[in-house]
Amino acid sequence: MKRQWKAFWYLLPALLFLLAFLVYPLVDVFVYSVEEGYNFASQTYFGVGGYNYSYVLHDPYFLQAVKNTCILVVVTVPLSTGLALLISLGLNSIKPLRNLFQTIYFLPYVTNTLAVGLVFMILFQKTEYTDGLINLLIQWFGGSSVDFIDGPYWAKMFVLCFYTVWVVMPFKILILTSALASVNPDYYKAARVDGTSRTRVFFCITLPMISPMVFYLVITGFIGAFKAYSDAVALFGADLNAAGMNTIVGYVYDMLYGDSGGFPSYASAAAVILFAIVLTITCINLLVSKKHIHY
Amino acid sequence: MEHEFDYKKAEEAIRRKQRAVRIFTYCCLIMWAGVVLFPFYWMVLTSLKSYGAYNGERIPSFWVWPPVFQNYKDAFTLVPLAGYLLNTVIFTAVTTAIMVAVITLAAYAFARLKFPGKNLLFTLLLSLMMIPGELVVITNFATITELGLRNTFTGLILPSVTSVFYIYLLKENFEQVPEELYRAAKVDGTSDFKYLWKVMIPICRPTFVTIVILKIIECWNSYVWPRLITDDPAYFLVSNGIQEIRENGFGRENIPAMMAAVVVISLPLILLFLAFRKQIMEGVSRGGIKG
Amino acid sequence: MKIVLENLTKKFPSRNKKEPKDVTAVDHFSFECPDGQLISLLGPSGCGKSTALNLICGLETPTEGHIYFGDSDVTSLTPELRGVGMVFQNYALYPHLTVKQNILFPLENRKGKDRLTREEMEKRAFQAAELVQIKELMDRKPRELSGGQQQRTAIARALVKTPSVLLLDEPLSNLDARLRLRTREEIKKIQRATGITTIFVTHDQEEAMSISDQILVMRDGRLIQAGKPQEVYDSPNCLFVAKFLGTPPINVFRGRIRDKTLYIGEDAIWKTDLKDQEVFAGIRPEGFLLDSDGPLCCRLNGVEVMGRDVSILSSHPACEAAFVRSIIDSENQMDVSRETVRFSLKPGKVFLFCKDTEERLPFSAERSSL
What is the pLDDT of residues A168-186, one digit of tens each? Predict the structure, then answer.
């Protein structure tokens, strides 16, 4: 009996924190999301119902945020995974300088997203003093300059996607490089003896062998991209709605706090919707991966 | 003789093709390395340009000589960058310390102690890993506000002192320590706590190092929670600080000074990474996801 | 197909940066494998036998020398152009493909006019599977197979492209002892049935002896001795080969020739025609005869009865090992309680080696004179 209590004391702090800041909020967010007309200051509400959801789903800012997030997901997840795969294949085929390259490629992982985002901003931004470096390059190649930070929607979306890819690449390269390195070299030797072409080796041996890791990256990539927020803040500033570049997570926070905030019910409803989207996509991903991973 | 010739020629052809492929591979790799490194180069370069020189360049120059360090002075004097750094150090140190203590106790309980419902509890714990942080932030914000803990370190720290993933990681590592050691210690009359402190922690040091470093990175870069919970610049962390600097620090046009601040903020983590490259990359590949 | 190896040499750049000397894995290896034989490359680990196999296969290109298949020089050809089939030590079966897909894999690689029709491919795969008796397992994945079945699948995959040469790298080392015995018989059978020149690498001398037409003993990248198993066993050309072949291993004694007489320790064994010198004397366990008047006197340590014969453990001061192991017919009654045991030796089972070069010294023995 005494021993059991001991285990309890060891677990107590962790359980306490988890209950207070993870389990209770999880339940509470659903409660919030159905309390209509909740007032933060007086902590009162009119009634219970689906009005918050309906409000959020009809809010043009939210729809804009969903559109932005979806474009971001659809562009960056395949692009970054494919690019990471190519780079990892290259990394795996060389020996000298491999460690150096790996170290360099990992650098974005340990940098502050907000801080480095500012560097991207000045690279892409067009001000009255200068067109910025990227525009200079575009002009060199005969294009006309565009303001990527305050300009047209596609330009802003391009920078956001570019920066997101830049930020998520280290993790993907790391995972894929170690997955590729763990493929038994005898498979490649056997393929060489049988005269297998490079493309067939890639599609019939390499890809199936690392497919569990690729799917893992796709799933985590989807989840991560749906939760995009700080990358956008870094590039376009805290007022994302004004820039038209808000994301779903950004919408949640804006509803909760800040100049447009004070509506935890709307924020909760949006968060629950986001969670539902992510859950659906993840389930679809898992189903697809079950079909395609054979061992 | 003819054979000799053919042999050399064929080998030469193979070599040439291999060399071409290798050169192409290196070119691609160097290109991506350039894409990764260029922002860093640009940030350091810009931070060394004087305000006047930077704004005078219609076409940005790729080199600056002599470098100007005035921007770094400005970053520490015109805006409270030192304060942001100090806040972040305190926040990071305290959060990491508390978290390590909390998760060590929990992981030890799961790994070595016996109690009813252990497996069930652990499964429940693992399922908590799937809860997205965005979902719980709303209530946590309300809770901290109600407790009057906004703009305090307590409010900043409290929600991030546990991590289910790290408990899991540590428990796995604890379980690899042979159980005989535990039995031997029990026979010698060692208390559980002493055993944990004297045996388990030293043996599992590499995992602790990994966890601590990953947590430090996470804390240093955290933005969302601090932004919600602090609006008094005296409690800003670096991420919010840099955002504040951007919005109304030096005035929007003093880019070099802003870049100096960015360099100062980025440098500690880059140094930490270079020092613990192996542990960090290993830890991340075991399941760290940038959160 | 006949395989000729001519002065084959492979050097690898040194990995040790302090000593930038090349490592020679295969050193001027020359040999001619007759058509249709089963040849084993035998040697301790690290002796270069796998590298030699990779050179024949084409996975490595030699630093020097030539390889001929039949009359054509294949030295610079890539593996697929040589038409070799290879079975890897861990089988290298693609885990995501079924047995059938694995066997079809080499055929599906072919392009252009070499490409077979689908039916032809299936037919060939089926024939190969039938040959190694895995027809009924065609739809399974490799992980659903036992070790022996995986091994046979790997052989089928190598055979399906009707290779001119079949190469096996330690084919039995991943199997348990009982399966190993059965599988080696099967490899022999398949080789006989197809008549494909087969080279296989092993470090297990028993395996090599039992199924090969010829064995090549390698050491430090060099070919030490080649020949039929019994020939190599009966007349090893150096101490290394003598020690490497045979279970239980040969007993090695320090001896010398003095006044045309062979001495082992202080025991004068027999007259020889060799000149005076220090020698190693290797005596096969079956080369001992119990003989109360025998010249070799050992301290008796124990007797192990093994049914058909008896193994006697004794010790002798001049023996290199702690025990002298001799095997005699169980019909010979012997007194276990005695302190010493005397043996006479069968001349054909005793080999003398030069002390310095460790090379074999041919001799004629006249036992009667002592």
Answer: 999 999 999 999 998 988 9
Name beta bridge partners: A167.
none
- Summarised one tens digit per residue, pLDDT across range C121-176 is 999 999 999 888 888 999 999 989 988 899 889 999 998 988 889 999 888 888 88
Taking contacts as CB-CB distances below 8 angstroms, the residues of chain B near C73 are: 3, 6-7
Inspect the interface and report whether the beta carbons of A204 and C80 lie closer than 8 Å: no
| Residue B34: predicted pLDDT | 94
CA distance linking residue C94 with residue C105, whole number of Å: 9
The Cα of B171 is separated from the nearest Cα of chain A by a number of Å equal to 13
Q: What is the ipTM of this complex?
A: 0.88
C81-95 burial by CB neighbour count: b if 16+ within 10 A, else e? ebbbbbbbbebbbbe
Residue of A nearest to C159 (CA): A194
For B69, the token pair is 């360090």
Which of the residues B2, B4, B7, B11 would you substitute to probe the C interface, choosing the one with the greatest number of C C-beta atoms within 10 Å? B7
Q: Does C369 score more than 50 pLDDT?
A: no
* Closest CB to C79 among A192, A205, A209: A192
Range in A66-80, B56-70, C289-303 the model is least confident about:
B56-70
- The H or E element spanning position B182 is helix B179-187
- Which chains have at least 3 CB atom pairs separated by less than 8 Å from chain C? A, B
Distance CA A233, CA A245 (A): 9
Q: How high is the mean pLDDT of chain C?
A: 86
- Provide, as residue numbers in chain C, all residues whose Cβ is less than 8 Å from the Cβ of A204: 94, 105
**Alpha-carbon distance C23 to C221, whole Å?**
10
